[in-house]
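Hello,

Our lab assistant flagged a job as stuck in the queue for most of the afternoon. It eventually completed. Since we weren't sure the result was trustworthy after the delay, we are filing this so someone can double-check. Below is the sequence as submitted and the structure that was eventually returned. Let us know if re-running is recommended.
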Amino acid sequence: MTALNRVPSLMVRAGTASALTIAAVGGSIVVPGLSADAVAATTATKALKIAASKKGSPYRYGATGPRRFDCSGLTLYAFKKAGKKLPRTAAQQYNKTHHVSARHRKAGDLVFFHSGSSVYHVGIYAGKGKIWHAPKTGDVVRLQKIWTKSVWYGRVS
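-- returned structure --
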């Protein structure tokens, strides 16, 4: 059975009229097992949009916004504005995330660049192998292709 075939049976069990009524008045339907993921996706999506909105902001070591950023300052700022608190440094942020494989990464996950076991840089995954990040002194917040395989992924929960 495909996902499309399951939708009508779910709507019949839930009651099509009641679901449509709820939707019409701006309500929401709680689906067991999906609410935590939906909230996480919303937070990650918001953080990603916030980081993207800072395109062109100058890099400054130690800066946490709103006009200048270093790498972890950008991620800290974006997630704080989206409603989640992160620690200050890239390594501390890595230790506070739920680690996910490259195969399971999603837009809004954090991308941690490492050398051996040391994390030295962080950005926000934008999809299609790209990140929003504050690269280095003399550069600006920008979208860039991930340039190495030495990365780990973390999901903010």
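-- support follow-up --
The delay was a queue issue, not a problem with the job. The result is valid. The mean pLDDT is 83. The first strand starts at residue 98 and ends at 100.
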